[in-house]
Amino acid sequence: MSGQRGIIVLLGPPGVGKGTQGQRWAEENEWLYAATGDLLREAVQKQTPIGIQAKAYMEKGLLVPDELMDKIVEEVLLNSKQSILLDGYPRTLAQAQVLDEMAQRLGWKIQIAVLMTLSDDEIVDRLSARRICPNCKAIYNLKSKPPRNDEICDECSAKLIQRDDDRPEVIRKRLAVYHEQTAPVVNYYRSKGILTEVCSLGTPEEVYERLKKVTLA
Ligand code: AMP
After folding, report:
1. For 108-157, how does the pLDDT look when each residue is reduced to its tens digit (9 = 90+)?
2. Which residues does the annotation mark as catalytic?
3. Is the CB of 58 under 6 A from ligand 1?
4. What is the domain partition of the chain in residue ranges?
5. Residues ≥6 apart with Cβ < 8 Å to 8
6. Domain 6-118+174-215 falls in which CATH fold?
């Protein structure tokens, strides 16, 4: 998947491993990893106008309005010289249509959409144990991928945090939102013939091998 400036869309429920797998894949292939959730959390932290608007939605596990998200992603497309692994966008059918329009207008090709799959129960389990580094964005899991030292980032030594929206009641809401609003996006790419699926059961290494296979095809 090299040579052409393209986009791979990474789809799947929250906690399925998009961030862990996507960051590694992008680094190894020298693509830009762009996660709209990370961009929003940064905006919230810096209290930018977008961050101030987005905060209340995010805390409740709801989707941030499409217009805000479209703006954020357009900026990414305008500023990247590298191909892009897009994680967390599009999350609604309307966003998927806007992405098509922007890609065409700005000279990008959406190469494939990769759907990562896992059961809801497994997801609740994983998300409750997830910790992230607020500084370098590394992702840990206290059960399956613990940091070397008690909740301290292996990479940059910052204190790890739990995302506000990784609390069980918010996780259930985010899953419901995913099934309602993001399922049509999956069908959208399926009907275009560019959807491919990766099962997220197993170790991060096993999942990564599966991801590598479908992205090399
Ligand atoms: P994530 O890190 O991808 O789980 O995103 C965290 C939160 O950011 C989501 O629960 C939404 O509130 C918001 N968010 C991220 N990407 C989008 C998007 N494409 N559309 C709407 N809201 C988004």
Report:
1. 999 999 999 999 999 999 999 999 999 999 999 998 889 999 999 999 99
2. 18, 91, 130, 163, 174
3. yes
4. 6-118+174-215
5. 1, 31, 83, 84, 85, 86, 110, 111, 112, 113, 114, 215
6. Rossmann fold (3.40.50)
